[in-house]
Amino acid sequence: MSSEYVPVFLPHRESEVKETLKHFYPIIRGEKGLTKTVIYDGPTGTGKTAVAKRILLSLSEHASLGKFPPLTTSYVNAYELRSKFSVFRKIGEDVGLRFPRKGFSTHEVIAYTFQTLSRSGSNLVLVVDEADMLVRQKEGEEVLYVLTRVGELLSDVNVGIGLIVIFRDFQVSTESISNVGVRSSLSSTVIRFNPYSSKQLADILWYRVEKEGAMRPGAVGSEVIEMIANTFGYDHQRGGWGDARMALKTLYYAALRAENLGRGVVLPEDVREVLNQGILPTPFDEEEIEKLQLHEKILLLAITNILLMERDKAYVSIGDVEFEYEDLCNNYGIKPLKHTSIWERVQVLKNKGLIDTRVSSMDGKGRTTQIALPQVPEVEYLGINRVPLDVLKKVLQESIEEELRSAH
Ligand SMILES: Nc1ncnc2c1ncn2[C@@H]1O[C@H](COP(=O)(O)OP(=O)(O)OP(=O)(O)O)[C@@H](O)[C@H]1O
């Protein structure tokens, strides 16, 4: 049930898998000297990463059995690897090379990596996840530039590259790309991942329970599955999240509750309790929060603290957030970041779907950025619509303290 798990079965995403493979066919067949790019675009929890990772796993399994010409696969997460050097070092590692942190230039890492692939006659299928982060910086644009033009940039290299670039909001992200070459190389095939309907979420939950063996057979019934699927399913008229991650996490927490109470069966009551306490039906997934960098956690805690103090407000100003953030840094005994870095981190949190921002004009005083936490979806039959701020606060505090402890 972990977000990191790559499911074997991906119901309702068969056509996306098929379309990607069709596009990559020349690369899989061993053709050299070309890059085939596919863009995945869609909101959070719609299966983009799961599909991409499943494709990598299947391709590398087939290649290792000798069913295809040699093929290397690689996955990079642009959010976790924030520099051009780290991205290419990870690709190099997946190719089987080891680069120390110091001593190699980015260009050398790129050259060695692709020369090694070329010499071994292998093609590369690469996933670049969370690319929204990448294209915000010039360095990030360069990553895509290099990947789409390896053949031109390195004359002694002859490889075929299949590239999946994953965006949460492709249109908005590409507007910020300044390099015309990068922009045109991304104007290729775009596969759109739509939010899941209730019916689709129910299938996904059933597959996870029965086919992937996440739970003991009989531990969960259709009432529970439908309750969760209906809560998070997307509908054209009603809207909704359509997010499989939230649906799976809710089932997971409901099962944990049942287990803690010594019960072998998940009941609607467990689901209701999870939704009521707001343990998860928001993007505030503990696994996601753990992955944030220290200052992002502190910023999120600052936003949470202000919202807890001013419960009638939905939005807080970035100025207030900065004050609270500096106070927290002082309390934790660490140096706060400067204004522009804070701004960048706010964009990171926004990109991760952890906060919403809007720009408002303050009676002639100029424009200011306002920040909010996304709301829990309206769950009519439960009458809930609130963000679990105290839960979030506790998770953040524990995570920050743990990180500071382990740094000492
Ligand atoms: N069709 C599906 N079948 C089974 N599990 C799925 C399916 N779609 C998504 N999931 C599961 O839902 C969770 C979220 O999916 P995933 O991480 O792929 O979403 P995403 O679109 O990449 O989201 P994000 O933009 O937040 O990274 C994962 O645990 C994944 O395994």
UniProtKB/TrEMBL annotation:
Similarity comment text for this entry: Belongs to the CDC6/cdc18 family.
One annotated GO biological process: DNA replication
Residues that bind ATP: 46-50, 196, 208
SMART domains: Cdc6_C
Pfam families in alphabetical order: AAA_22, Cdc6_lid, WHD_Cdc6
Keywords for the protein's UniProt record, in alphabetical order: ATP-binding, DNA replication, Nucleotide-binding
Cdc6 C-terminal domain location: 300-382
Function summary: Involved in regulation of DNA replication.
HAMAP family (UniProt xref): ORC1_type_DNA_replic_protein
Entry GO MF terms: ATP binding; ATP hydrolysis activity
Keyword check for ATP-binding: yes
Protein name in UniProt: ORC1-type DNA replication protein
CDD domains per UniProt: Cdc6_C
InterPro entries: AAA_22 (IPR049945), Cdc6_C (IPR015163), Cdc6_lid (IPR055237), ORC1/CDC6 (IPR050311), Orc1/Cdc6_arc (IPR014277), P-loop_NTPase (IPR027417), WH-like_DNA-bd_sf (IPR036388), WH_DNA-bd_sf (IPR036390)
ATP-binding as UniProt keyword: yes
